[in-house]
Design goal:
With 317 residues, the chain is α/β, with parallel strands linked by helices. It has eight helices and 18 strands.
Length: 317
C-alpha cells in the first residue's frame, strides 16, 4: 500500500482521485486550489477536486495559496507520504517539496511527452491537427513536464473530437495508468522511468482569448475548423460576421471553395447547411454559433436574422 497525498484542481483530476479512493492505496490528504469567486454573483466556489473529495468522505483538504510558502511544506512533511500524486493542480511544486517523499512526485499529464509539455496539451493537440495523443505518468521535476516517463496510454484524435469529448477519455486513461504505476512501484521499488527525449518537444502554452480569434485571411479552412474543435466548449472560437462578434461552436471545412470569385474572408453561401466562408485555402462552414448575450443557434438561423448574404465579410475580431 502506498501512502500518498493527492494534488489536483480541475475536472481532469477527478477520475484519478476516484480511482485512488477505490484502490488499496491510502490517500492521506487532498491538496487543491483555494476556493475562488465564480458565477454572476462571484460567490466563493470549491474546485471540482474539492467537491469530489468531500463527496468521497475526505476531511483533510489543504488549500494553500502557494505550496512553496510556509506552513504548507511543514504540514506536508508531517503527513510523511510515500509519494505525491499530482494531476492538473495549477501550481508549480518546488523541488524541495518533491524531494520529501520516498518516491517523489508522480504527475499524470495529458500528452505523449515530450510533445505538448505545458498547461493546455489537449487543446494544442487538436488545434495542431494531431492524429494521436495520449496520457503519461512521469516522475516530477521542478521544471515543467520534463521528468522521465513511467507509463503512457495512446488514443486517436478523431475528426469529430473536441476538447469536450477528448478530455474525459484521457482523464479515464490517466487514472488507470496512475494506479498501474503505483502498483508496479509497490512491487518493484527500484523501477526507473524512461528519460524524455528532446526530439519532437513542443510547448502547450496556456490559452488566451486571442487563441479563439478566427481569421480566414491567414489560416486555411482545416486550421480554422481544428481551432474551433480545440476551443469547444471553452473559450470558443470567435469571428466577426458583418461587423458583429459571434462565437463559433461547431464548424466543418471543405478543401475547395465554392464557385465564384470570392476572396478569403468573404461569405460564399448562406443556406440550410450553414454559413460558408472563403479562407486562405478551402472554405469554412459555420454550423452552430452563439451571438453575444444569446443562446446557441443554428448558423442558418443566425444568418437569416442578421440578413447575411454572399459577399459579406467575415473577419478576425
Amino acid at each position: 500500500m502506498m501512502r500518498l497525498v493527492f494534488f489536483g484542481t480541475s475536472p481532469f483530476a477527478v477520475p484519478t482521485l476516484q480511482a485512488l479512493h477505490a484502490s488499496h492505496h491510502e490517500v492521506l490528504a487532498i491538496v487543491t486550489q483555494p476556493d475562488r469567486p465564480a458565477g454572476r454573483g462571484m460567490q466563493l466556489a470549491a474546485s471540482p477536486v474539492k467537491k469530489a473529495a468531500l463527496a468521497l468522505g475526505y476531511t483533510t483538504i489543504l488549500q494553500p495559496e502557494k505550496v512553496r510558502r510556509k506552513p504548507f511544506p511543514e504540514e506536508l512533511s508531517m503527513l510523511a507520504p510515500d509519494v505525491l500524486v499530482v494531476v492538473s493542480f495549477g501550481q508549480i511544486i518546488p523541488q524541495r517539496v518533491l524531494d520529501g517523499p520516498r518516491y517523489g512526485g508522480i504527475n499524470v499529464h495529458a500528452s505523449l511527452l515530450p510533445r505538448w509539455r505545458g498547461a493546455a496539451p489537449i487543446h494544442r493537440a487538436i488545434m495542431a491537427g494531431d492524429l494521436e495523443t495520449g496520457v503519461a505518468t512521469m516522475r516530477m521535476e521542478a521544471t515543467l513536464d520534463t521528468g522521465p516517463v513511467f507509463l503512457e496510454a495512446r488514443t486517436p484524435i478523431t475528426p469529430r473530437d473536441t476538447t469536450l469529448s477528448l478530455e474525459p477519455r484521457l482523464a479515464a486513461a490517466g487514472a488507470a495508468i496512475l494506479i498501474q504505476t503505483l502498483d508496479r512501484l509497490e512491487q518493484e521499488p527500484n523501477w526507473q522511468p524512461n528519460p524524455q527525449s528532446e526530439t519532437g518537444m513542443t510547448y502547450a502554452a496556456l490559452l488566451s482569448r486571442e487563441d479563439g480569434f478566427l481569421d480566414p485571411t491567414t489560416e486555411s479552412a482545416l486550421q480554422l475548423a481544428n481551432r474551433v474543435r480545440a476551443l469547444t466548449p471553452r473559450p470558443g472560437g470567435v469571428i466577426m460576421l458583418a461587423g458583429k462578434e459571434v462565437k463559433v461552436l461547431e464548424a466543418t471545412y471543405a478543401l475547395e471553395t465554392g464557385p465564384g470569385p470570392y476572396s478569403p474572408g468573404e461569405l460564399i453561401a448562406v443556406n440550410k447547411d450553414g454559413i460558408e466562408i472563403a479562407t486562405l485555402a478551402g472554405s469554412l462552414r459555420l454550423v452552430t454559433v452563439q451571438p453575444a448575450g444569446k443562446p446557441a443557434m443554428a448558423a442558418t438561423a443566425y444568418a437569416n436574422g442578421a440578413r447575411l448574404k454572399p459577399g459579406d465579410l467575415a473577419a478576425r475580431p
